[in-house]
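Technical appendix A lists one of the benchmark inputs used to test multi-chain prediction within the project. The record comprises two sequence entries:
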Amino acid sequence: MKYAEKILNTPSSFTRDILKVAGQEDVISFAGGLPNPISFPVEDLQNAINHAIEVHGPKLFQYSATEGYLPLRQYVADKLNKGQEGLDIQPEDILITTGSQQALEMISQVMIDKGDGIVMEEPGYLGAIQAFHLTEPTFHPVTLTDEGLNVAELENMLKNNQNIKFIYTVPNFHNPTGITYTKENRDAIYDVVKNYDVILIEDDPYGDLRWNGEKIPYIGAGRLENSVVLGSFSKIVTPGMRLGYIVTKNKELLNHVITAKQAADLHTNIFSQIVIHEYLAKNDLEAHVSKIIALYESQANAMLEAMAKYFPSSVKFTKPDGGMFIWVTLEEGVSSLDLFYKAMEEKVAFVPGDPFYTSKTNVNTFRLNYTNSSPEVIEEGIKRLGKLLHEVSTTEKALV
Amino acid sequence: MKYAEKILNTPSSFTRDILKVAGQEDVISFAGGLPNPISFPVEDLQNAINHAIEVHGPKLFQYSATEGYLPLRQYVADKLNKGQEGLDIQPEDILITTGSQQALEMISQVMIDKGDGIVMEEPGYLGAIQAFHLTEPTFHPVTLTDEGLNVAELENMLKNNQNIKFIYTVPNFHNPTGITYTKENRDAIYDVVKNYDVILIEDDPYGDLRWNGEKIPYIGAGRLENSVVLGSFSKIVTPGMRLGYIVTKNKELLNHVITAKQAADLHTNIFSQIVIHEYLAKNDLEAHVSKIIALYESQANAMLEAMAKYFPSSVKFTKPDGGMFIWVTLEEGVSSLDLFYKAMEEKVAFVPGDPFYTSKTNVNTFRLNYTNSSPEVIEEGIKRLGKLLHEVSTTEKALV
């Protein structure tokens, strides 16, 4: 049996593969990107379900429109417009997707013929890298700094490659690094991108989860013709129901994505769409999210404090203002993949940096997640990692 | 903005596009493939939801495994093994998909590089044609007869085209024609296909909905190495929750599909998977399905009787033993698309044959669905169509 080249070249998800191991009861896992179960308003969802069944009956269980449930699209439009001045998003600018992961694959299907270019943050979200792989693109990595994208590199990439179709970014509480693009960086990116016939994707699953600083406006939304914003209910209500959305004022693009959506799964689970809309209409989402934020902030602080205490000073790490991740950079030349295998022996899991890069392997970086462990477990896990890092550090020095 | 060639060549779904028009209140629609709402066991599903939330709590709302919910995979395996002697399906041979539509797109992604061959029934399911289009295949149409595939044509296709990757079939209560492959036809297909390195897909969303004759064993399942069976809960429990499955003993193939699934949407809605499993575990599915069957049989008979009464004798149509569709063949040279526009003026909708073919247009066939209208509405709709058909028939004769 000869399989398609594109699937043979598509990496299996490292995160999901190691989650199987990391999911073992005695492993302390900083590997996944799992929201804390506190973020699932189970009781309010139960009420929303009962009410939805009472009001809508069989409609919850029938086939429905590819574009998504209109009141949910209206809610998303209102939420976005309320969150940023000058936006004028309408329900018809929105397609509900089966998680925002599906939006990634569909946009790639719609834009990329084999060999076409995609600008990827380096490092960038591994799920996006995987989804894009299926369309056999050429990846153009642009370095991610603490401020955001390296704008000079970005401009060079766009200038020297005619076939770049889109730029993929996670500007808020970036996955995997936890950093947030600054206002200045966003404006500088906009000033470059506006001159090219290229789509700017801002994937924003974590934007609501901010505990420090002020919300920063989107890079492209509201001012760039080919702006695409992706959002999700996974981190603020439930990931299990797989509900995300794609927002763009480019109608031609959205129509093509709708065709891809018909081919992919006809429409998004309508039961879940109506239930989530009922929940959102009847509950105070901000109050709910503020509980999630308070929890994640305390968990992030527990991890940062433990890292300061247990990690060698040569190890650098980011300090997120929100979201779910911290990014660790080891001394030059130290392999995080080697550390991963040693850590697994000590029953601690994280995601080594390799799957987040399109142009490098055997990197010295890795991703830590703090949202799904208690402060006590976080301290214990970081302590074990710290011990290993001190050993690595000593060994390295002995070798030098 | 330059979009990908593959999306520009992918047809938008004719059915879903006309459903928007056909959905208007005063239109009698035989166009959709919508199950009758009676097939949604709303009260039992509500009980299943309550029980699932009580027992599983936050697990219903968290991320979950790409392969699907293990007890549901076990249920599907048991159901298949019980339904046919000699099958030995295990849960690990099963992947839960976001509707069986998703299985179509993923198998195509996994198997087809641009130009690779797909054998399609002519006519065949338009949703499959659409999903496959995204991978830019070469379609090899094989004529569908009242008995099933034309086996001589199939053998010629396989012999003369080295690059054929899979054969797509709907052997039970076929969409769009309503026919069922005979036992003899299935055996003849097996005898040909077993000699080629090719996958045989048997898409079986309607197999449980039989009111006449005996269940016939699968063509390939249980005896063909590269057998793939697709199934769905859409027609027997609910389409709104988008739950289907893919079954194959080819582990390499299934692993590639799992990678494609990670890229497509990470995993299928776990809330819906657990709820449907609760429903199936606690209720008598056969008793529920027998109610659906009784209803559809009476609707099918109402339509067949009305067609015998109102259609000109020159018009031929199939007489299904189950499922949801009747296929109408007009006199040679009469365009069903022309008829469609005339019928819409009379507020009756159906799906003209064109989108079900990969090698022809302007055909003289069309599809009727009877599951979503009462016998009275069916009679009125067929009466209106009959009037138009007599006019067409007369006009044609006058022209000759």
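The mean pLDDT of chain A is 95. The radius of gyration of chain A is 21 Å. Comparable benchmark entries are summarised in Table A2.
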